[in-house]
């Protein structure tokens, strides 16, 4: 669905009204902006966020330092348009950017996640966070919406995690921490210069959380990484990294309404309503990447190569997944930047090709060995031990793409980004299904036998963005961008007829960066055709299908103000109105399925209103503090819009820290007032409610020694 001209004018008037207020009042003469951040995520070149014609949020190194960083949630929460929470409190995160990622039952879908320019996301747009060391993060950039040059087959934008460079000459450190619920944290970074032009850095992290406020909720991970960097002459560098991770994660089940009521009173979850009481993921991962950068006159070459191999034991609903062989993902980005002139004005051409492949041979699924059966149905598991072999699958997903973007400076005020990337995604899946878990009968039945799925998707992603500098501190921007969202392999296996969703974004906004203040305001229309929707059938079954059309509209605003004596105030707000324009939901009753029209309903789990406020203080004596509060408004719990959940109000987190010389002590307290609420509530088509508890009050006391 195309945005109408009257609607776009309405959005323009809204932003103009916002400009007429704070912008004109604050436009006094300023020194060079001090609250500015550089971004490389939207354009693949370093540029002040004020001049990027797209909604960009940057989580600074100062903010990262104030967070305990056990999970990416610790850094991302409070970002307008970004919904993030964790069921376990370990590495897992439920991450949604402007509605993208909503369909993911676990992991991250529809959002490109990168680390130092290297994709963490598989070619099918699925991201695991188990091998990202959250203790080794310098800053995080969030580029919202489709059309991003980095985002291959992902409509939600990109999350770019930037780690500490091997060439960073700041002091190394060792950090130890302990907290309630059995939390332990250890991190070490040690580096050295091998020669005048070479550097080596070692990182080690160990994190443990018993999370004994809830059953089946333990998490622990061990990560070891080595980075090497070499300066080759005066105009080239070569950086290489190798890491190994082991991550064990128990995934707690949901609660019924009665069980959740008990949790609200006591802050403890002693049982789950789900039959599958031993879900989890236990993984081992090797990760390698190398990147070369060389300036040759007007051209800068930036080729990258990356390789990941992983294996896991993954009990989930109905079946246990196990990879007999290592799953391998490898790829390369061959990228170049050409600095030139157009009409006598400076311009930059960024272009390159992408080749990536994911290979999984002999992946197996097993029945649960130890189950309780009542009335012919499986009603509980007693362990996560595997039983009889259910299926064997081999798959290959190949992605090839080209990208190009011209950035043109028309004058001292006007800048245009015109870009396009086109990717081709090819799925080849061969399966021998011996048995299956039948959701209708609640037990294991005969499988479908041998099958082959072959699907190809072409994924164009054009973008046109314009930035206009009103003054030394303030810029306007407008952008029109589009992307195709590729289905994940598990979704295609569930429904081979799935089409790639088409997401188109129309957005206007204003950004200001001054010495003592910064703010961002943007309004967007985001119609989506063939959006991939999750339908939650009874007994835990998720069915994936394309909705006809979805209409997403939103307004986002954030700002920060620096005050005397080291104080800083900030706030953020997001309004999200996401509705199905055309959508028919299949509802299963027993063995029969009826299609029910949901057109006009709101998407579940997305609150209309999201708020965040914070106050931070840093003193020359070494003391620092930060207090923030987040609100997640009311939302519908199903596609039928039959019921709402109230969300949560002003859940508060606190940091108290002190630094003297080489010593740093910090206390992080999350959920200070010990609110007992659900981080997610959902209802299946039979009317069954599932509550997933958020963590009660937790604290982590950390000591860091810099050397």
Task: Give the tags.
single chain; about 700 residues; mainly beta; Maltoporin, Chain A; 23-stranded antiparallel sheet; five-stranded mixed sheet; cell outer membrane; ion transport
Can you characterise this structure?
Residues 258-672 form the TonB-dependent receptor-like beta-barrel domain. It is found in: Cell outer membrane. It is a multi-pass membrane protein. One of its GO terms (molecular function) is siderophore uptake transmembrane transporter activity. InterPro entries: Beta-barrel_TonB (IPR000531), Beta-barrel_TonB_sf (IPR036942), Plug_dom (IPR012910), Plug_dom_sf (IPR037066), TonB-dep_rcpt-like (IPR039426), TonB_rcpt_CS (IPR010917). With 707 residues, the chain is mainly beta. It has one domain: Beta Barrel (Maltoporin, Chain A), CATH 2.40.170. Helices cover 7% and strands 59% of the residues. It is built from five helices and 44 strands. The protein has a 23-stranded antiparallel sheet that branches. The chain is globular, with a radius of gyration of 25 Å. Residues 1-34 have low confidence and may be disordered.
Task: Note the topology.
Blueprint: H1 5-26, E1 38-39, E2 47-48, E3 56-59, H2 61-66, H3 73-76, E4 82-85, E5 94-97, E6 108-109, E7 112-115, E8 118-119, E9 126-127, E10 139-144, E11 157-162, E12 173-179, E13 184-195, E14 198-209, E15 219-231, E16 236-250, H4 257-266, E17 280-296, E18 299-315, E19 320-323, E20 327-342, E21 345-368, E22 371-374, E23 377-381, E24 386-409, E25 414-438, E26 443-469, E27 474-485, H5 489-494, E28 501-513, E29 517-529, E30 532-536, E31 542-546, E32 549-562, E33 567-582, E34 584-589, E35 592-597, E36 609-618, E37 623-632, E38 635-636, E39 644-645, E40 648-660, E41 663-670, E42 678-683, E43 689-693, E44 698-706
Parallel strand pairs: 7-11
Antiparallel strand pairs: 1-2, 3-10, 4-5, 6-9, 7-8, 10-11, 12-13, 12-44, 13-14, 14-15, 15-16, 16-17, 17-18, 18-19, 18-20, 19-21, 20-21, 21-24, 22-23, 24-25, 25-26, 26-27, 27-28, 28-29, 29-32, 30-31, 32-33, 33-36, 34-35, 36-37, 37-40, 38-39, 40-41, 41-44, 42-43
GO cellular component, one term: cell outer membrane
Protein name: TonB-dependent receptor
Domain TonB-dependent receptor plug: 49-158
């Amino acid at each position: 669905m195309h945005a109408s001209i009257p609607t776009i004018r309405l959005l323009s008037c809204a932003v103009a009204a916002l400009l007429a207020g704070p912008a004109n009042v604050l436009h006094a003469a300023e020194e060079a902006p001090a609250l500015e951040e550089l971004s490389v995520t939207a354009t693949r070149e370093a540029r002040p966020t004020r001049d990027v014609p797209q909604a960009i949020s940057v989580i600074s190194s100062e903010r990262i330092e104030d967070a305990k960083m056990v999970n990416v949630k610790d850094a991302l929460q409070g970002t307008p348009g970004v919904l993030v929470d964790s069921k376990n409190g370990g590495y897992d995160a439920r991450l949604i950017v402007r509605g993208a990622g909503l369909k993911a039952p676990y992991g991250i879908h529809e959002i490109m996640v990168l680390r130092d320019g290297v994709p963490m996301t598989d070619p099918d747009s699925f991201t695991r966070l188990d091998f990202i060391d959250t203790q080794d993060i310098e800053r995080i950039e969030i580029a919202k919406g489709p059309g991003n040059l980095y985002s291959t087959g992902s409509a939600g934008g990109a999350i770019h995690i930037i780690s500490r460079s091997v060439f960073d000459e700041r002091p190394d450190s060792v950090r130890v921490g302990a907290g309630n619920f059995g939390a332990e944290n250890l991190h070490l970074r040690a580096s050295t210069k091998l020669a005048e032009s070479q550097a080596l850095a070692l990182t080690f992290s160990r994190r443990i959380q018993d999370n004994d406020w809830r059953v089946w909720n333990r998490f622990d991970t061990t990560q070891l990484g080595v980075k090497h960097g070499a300066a080759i002459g005066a105009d080239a560098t070569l950086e290489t990294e190798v890491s190994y991770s082991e991550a064990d994660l128990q995934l707690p089940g949901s609660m019924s309404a009665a069980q959740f009521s008990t949790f609200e009173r006591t802050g403890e979850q002693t049982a789950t309503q789900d039959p599958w009481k031993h879900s989890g993921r236990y993984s081992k991962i090797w990760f390698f990447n190398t990147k070369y950068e060389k300036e040759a006159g007007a051209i800068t070459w930036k080729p990258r190569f990356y390789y990941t191999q992983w294996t896991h034991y993954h009990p989930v609903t109905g079946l246990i997944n196990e990879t007999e062989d290592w799953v391998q993902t490898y790829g390369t980005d061959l990228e170049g930047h050409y600095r030139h002139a157009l009409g006598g004005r400076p311009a930059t051409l960024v272009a390159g090709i992408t080749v990536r492949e994911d290979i999984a041979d002999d992946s197996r699924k097993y029945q649960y060995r130890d189950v309780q059966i009542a009335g012919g149905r499986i009603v509980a598991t007693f362990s996560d031990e595997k039983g009889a072999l259910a299926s064997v699958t081999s798959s290959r997903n190949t992605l090839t793409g080209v990208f190009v973007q011209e950035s043109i400076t028309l004058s001292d005020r006007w800048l245009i980004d015109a870009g396009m990337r086109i990717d081709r995604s090819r799925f080849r899946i061969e399966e021998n299904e011996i048995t299956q878990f039948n959701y209708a009968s609640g037990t294991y039945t005969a499988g479908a036998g041998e099958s082959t799925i072959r699907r190809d998707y072409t994924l164009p992603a054009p973008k046109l963005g314009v930035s206009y500098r009103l003054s030394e501190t303030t810029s306007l921007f407008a952008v029109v961008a589009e992307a195709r969202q590729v289905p994940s392999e598990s979704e295609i296996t569930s429904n081979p007829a799935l089409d790639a969703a088409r997401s188109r974004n129309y957005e206007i906004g204003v950004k200001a960066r001054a010495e003592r203040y910064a703010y961002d305001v943007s309004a967007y229309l985001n119609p989506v055709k063939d959006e991939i929707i999750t339908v939650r059938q009874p007994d835990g079954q998720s069915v994936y299908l394309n909705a006809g059309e979805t209409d997403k509209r939103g307004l986002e605003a954030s700002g920060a103000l620096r005050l005397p004596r080291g104080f800083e105030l900030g706030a953020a707000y997001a309004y999200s109105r996401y509705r199905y324009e055309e959508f028919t939901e299949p509802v299963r009753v027993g063995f029969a399925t009826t299609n029910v029209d949901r057109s006009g309903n709101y998407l579940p789990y997305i609150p209309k209103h999201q708020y965040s406020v914070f106050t931070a203080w840093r003193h020359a004596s070494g003391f620092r503090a930060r207090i923030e509060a987040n609100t997640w408004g009311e939302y519908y719990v199903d596609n039928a819009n039959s019921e709402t959940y109230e969300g949560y109000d002003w859940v508060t987190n606190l940091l108290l820290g002190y630094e003297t010389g080489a010593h740093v002590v910090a206390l992080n307290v999350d959920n200070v007032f010990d609110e007992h609420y659900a981080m997610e509530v959902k209802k299946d088509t039979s009317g069954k409610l599932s509550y997933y508890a958020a963590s009660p009050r937790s604290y982590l006391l950390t000591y860091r020694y810099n050397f």
